[in-house]
């Protein structure tokens, strides 16, 4: 029992240390990617911060707060993926209806916020054994199901982005492709994490608990998928850190009309 507790604390401490370190390059990329990638890298930073706080709280303490933070932590990684996908589409797709793009981004954010609010509220009631428990379980199931649907929407949107018409600027298109491939790669691991949470919250099995459950399950289905997805985004972000400047220059070029040629005297 003591060995299991020690190993659990070690995983929580490692989570805290690793994400605290990863937050530094993410913050750098937030600055480098500018307004085009602001949402994606901001939410990825929030994700690192939540995992750091959650890991610190889970060391020698399996309180309700640690469980709730573990559930809430899914929303920033989904929103970060949506933001990085938005940045990739901005670089890669031409023509792009910017108004509809922002409307879809806003609608997606509202969907994820609704899902995580229900998940957090239901988890809090379950942790406190607040009756009726059936109602709390239904709230949790509804919330995590919404997050699973949100993941599916991202997967579909990513697939359509690959077949959309591309822009002429080869450098920007290449940067958008790098980010888009990172999103597609990461969605596989984020999906593992989302459906692990779906199974854990719907079945309420002790071995699947994201904070106190089986160490092997938490490591393979929780810790590793999130870390792989985060690292994939960081590597793609470093490769494309100059794309924001290229996009800005392109917009400035398009917005400045060419000077009219002087008419010859007849």
The top-level CATH class is Mainly Alpha
Mean pLDDT: 84
Q: Please compute the radius of gyration using only Cα atoms.
A: 21 Å
Give the uncertain stretches in residue-range form. 262-266
User: What is the end-to-end distance?
Assistant: 98 Å
Report on the biggest sheet: none
Total count of domains: 1
Q: How do the strands and helices of this protein lay out in sequence?
A:
Blueprint: H1 2-32, H2 38-58, H3 64-72, H4 74-92, H5 98-127, H6 133-163, H7 170-203, H8 215-239, H9 243-255
Helix pairs in contact: 1-2, 1-8, 2-3, 2-4, 3-5, 4-5, 4-6, 4-7, 5-6, 6-7, 7-8
Could you characterize the architecture of this molecule?
Pfam families: DUF7702. It is a single chain. The chain is mainly α. It has one domain: Rhopdopsin 7-helix transmembrane proteins, CATH 1.20.1070. The chain contains nine helices and no strands. It has helices at residues 2-32, 38-58, 64-72, 74-92, 98-127, 133-163, 170-203, 215-239, 243-255. The longest helix has 34 residues, at 170-203. The chain is globular, with a radius of gyration of 21 Å. It starts with a helix and ends in an 11-residue tail after the last helix. Mean pLDDT is 84; it is low at 262-266.
Overview in brief:
The protein is mostly helical and 266 residues long.
Features:
266 residues, Rhopdopsin 7-helix transmembrane proteins, globular, disordered C terminus
């Amino acid at each position: 029992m003591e060995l299991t507790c020690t190993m659990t604390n070690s995983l929580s401490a490692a989570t805290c240390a690793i994400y605290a370190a990863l937050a530094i390059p993410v913050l750098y990329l937030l600055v480098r990617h500018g307004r085009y990638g602001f949402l994606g890298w901001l939410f990825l930073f929030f994700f690192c911060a939540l995992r750091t706080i959650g890991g610190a709280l889970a060391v020698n303490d399996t309180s309700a707060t640690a469980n709730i933070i573990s559930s809430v932590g899914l929303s920033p990684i989904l929103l970060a993926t949506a933001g990085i996908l938005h940045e990739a589409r901005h670089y890669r797709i031409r023509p792009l209806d910017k108004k509809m793009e922002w409307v879809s981004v806003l609608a997606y954010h509202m969907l994820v916020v609704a899902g995580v609010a229900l998940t957090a509220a239901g988890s809090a009631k379950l942790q406190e054994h607040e009756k009726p428990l059936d109602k709390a379980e239904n709230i949790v199931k509804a919330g995590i199901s919404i997050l699973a649907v949100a993941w599916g929407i991202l997967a579909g949107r990513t697939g359509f982005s690959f077949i959309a018409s591309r822009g002429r600027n080869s450098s920007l298109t290449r940067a958008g492709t790098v980010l888009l491939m990172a999103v597609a790669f990461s969605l596989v691991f984020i999906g593992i994490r989302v459906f692990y949470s779906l199974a854990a919250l719907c079945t309420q099995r002790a071995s699947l608990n994201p904070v106190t459950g089986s160490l092997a399950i938490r490591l393979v289905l929780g810790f590793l998928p999130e870390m792989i997805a985060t690292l994939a985004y960081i590597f793609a972000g470093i490769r494309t850190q100059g794309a924001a400047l290229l996009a800005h220059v392109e917009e400035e070029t398009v917005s400045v009309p060419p000077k009219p040629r002087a008419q010859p005297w007849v």
